[in-house]
Structure formats: structure tokens, C-alpha cells
Model the fold of this input.
Amino acid sequence: MVDPTQAGMVAVGAGLAVGLAGIGAGLGEQAIGAAAVGAMAEDEKFFGKGLLMTVIPESIVIFGLVVALILLFVF
Amino acid sequence: MGASDGAKYAYIVARVRAMKGKLIPKDMYPKFLNMEIPEITRFIGESEYKKDVDELGKKYRGTDLFEHALNQNLALTYRKLIEVSQNEANFLITEYLRSFDIWNIKTILRGKISGASEEEILEDVVSAGQLRYRDLTELVKIGTVEGIIGALSGTPYYPALEGYKGDLAEIENALDKRYYAKRIEAATKTGNRLFLKFLRTEIDLKNLKMLFRMKRAGMEREDTLKNLIPGGMELKESDLGRLASMSFSEFVRALEEYSYWKAISDISGELTSLIHIETRLDKYGLMYASQISYYYPLSILPVLDYIVSKKIEVDNLRIIVRGKETKLPEDVIKAHLVM
Done:
């Protein structure tokens, strides 16, 4: 039986893992998104490349999500 | 450089990089030399200049159409840069493009003094600065030089013009000096060291061109110094004073100490041709802008690189068409091209 306080801390940890990873990805995407929109404004052909580049920092959030899931279901 | 510093230039830099990709590739210029004027006009009419050629096609024909379309496109492109940029980038681009105000004021005054028609003067103005085409048209309509200077009394250029006593070269110099002094002041105010570095290198190249011209004309030290712009990167005031007092051959030897020497070293044996020297120095300016824009990709430098590249593209096209119109030999036209 897990101590309720300990369970609460695990939940907070899981939340922080996803939340902080999200903030980090957001900061990273700030410049990439701006650049992608700038390039697309000049040439629509940059849509595919721009989209791809913009979502690359999203992988960090997936890592955060994985850590959160491990915390909640394995730990 | 923090994330937000990068982000504030990311949009405009990506945009100008995409715009630079649409410039005419330099391997096209030799091909233009083998084409006739109508062919070149057709090519240009199908390129980024299409809209301008179509729009002005009803009003102008031949090389006049070409000239007006190039100028209009240049002005609209630069104006677009001002419109799509924000904050510091917007401020610096606006300040930098004030050079076109100087260019236009000089063109109008020169045109008036040489008795050119209103149409001829308007053919050469580029309304990329703060003075709009409408303002320039109004200025051109004024009959006298004094009247034009009076009409500019509310602008920041007036202090350089108000001392006009019949010597155009003097106020042209004063305009240039004021332009660079104000831009250095603006760059210092924003704390943007890269802009300042670019500007100061530009001053050096301008001073070098001026020094070559004046050395060739055999001007005295004092007269030479009056025409030089202070604030250069490598050519400080003491260097300018030293170079100004040298003879032409000593001056050429002394240049070996500066990094600009590599721009002209390959023609060091034939430094008598001003065309070759000025073309090399322009090429150096173009290469320099391109190189440092890659060193600092998220800064004002890629935008300045684009501004320089676009201006050189328009100048090259104009040289080719005007050269062909006056039936200049191909090698003479080629010597004038910056590529």
C-alpha cells in the first residue's frame, strides 16, 4: 500500500515532467515557428519543411510524458 | 544570445533568406550578355519583376520600362522589409534605408543643376527611404535648387543642406557624413554591435573608393580629407590622414596593411582602372555581407546582406541593359558587373 503523501508527490512529479518539458519545447519552438511562418509567407513550398522543423522540439514533451507514465504506473 | 533574442530575428531572417533565394543567380549574367534587350526584358518580365513590368508596361517602353520597373521593384522590396519587420529590426532597417533618401536628394539636386527633365530625374529615384515617391515627385516639380532645399526644411537632412552656396559637391559630402554619423548614433543607441560593425566596414569601403578617385585626380591632402567620412572600422581618422598625404604608389603600398587589400590584390599591377577597383571593392562588400550573415544567422546581418545583394542585382541588370543599348563591347560591360 502506497502512502497517500508519497502518491501525491509522484503525481506532482509526473505533472512537472510533462509541464516543464512542454514549457521547454514551447521556448524552443518560438524561434522555429516564427522562422517557419516567415519562410512560408515568401514561399508556400516551405510548409512541409517548416512544419517538420517546428514539431522537432515536441519530442522532448514525449520524453516528459514517458517519464510521467513511468512515475504513475511503474514506480 | 538568449532564446528570445533569436526569436525576434527568426521571422525576418527566414523571410529574407527565402527572398534571397529568388534573386537572379550570378551565372545568369553571362547569359544576359549574349541576349538582346527584348529577350532580357522578357526574361525579367517573367521573373520577380513581372508585376512591375506589367504595371509600368502601359506607360513606358524599352529601356525606360526596364529602368522604371527595376527601381519600382527595388523600392517596393525594401519597403516590404520595413513593413514585415518589428521592433529593433524595423528601426535598424528604416535607418539603413535612409541612404536612399540621400541618394534621391542628390539625384534631384544634380538633375536640377544639369537641367534634366522631370521625367529623367524621376527615372533615377528609388523611393525606398522615408521620402515617398509622391514627396519626390513634388520635389522634382520645384524649379530651383534653393526651393528644393527649402521644401526639405522639416526633414532630418536639412541641416546638411542649409549651408548651400552653389557648391553641390560640398552639400553632397555633408549629406553623406550626416547620414553615417546619424546611423552610427542609432546603432550605438540600440547597442547593436553587429549593425555598427557592418556600417563601419561600409564607411571604409566608401572611403577607399573616394581615396582612389581623389588620388587619381591628384587632389591635395586637405581637399581629400574634407571628402572622407569619419567612423570607419580599419581606416580610422589617423589612417585617413596618413593615406591622404601619400602619393598614389605609396598609397597602394600602404593598403597592403589592411584587410581590404585582398579585395584588390589580384589586380595590384593594374590599379589604374577605377572601374576595376570599384567593382572589386563592391564585390568585397557583397562577399563580406554574405559571410558575416552566416556567422551571425539570427541578427540584422542577413537582412543587410539581402539589401546589399538586391541593390547589386538591380545595378547589374541596369548596367547590362544600358551597356547593350549604347552598344558597349561585352568585356567592358562585364568589367562593370559585380558578381
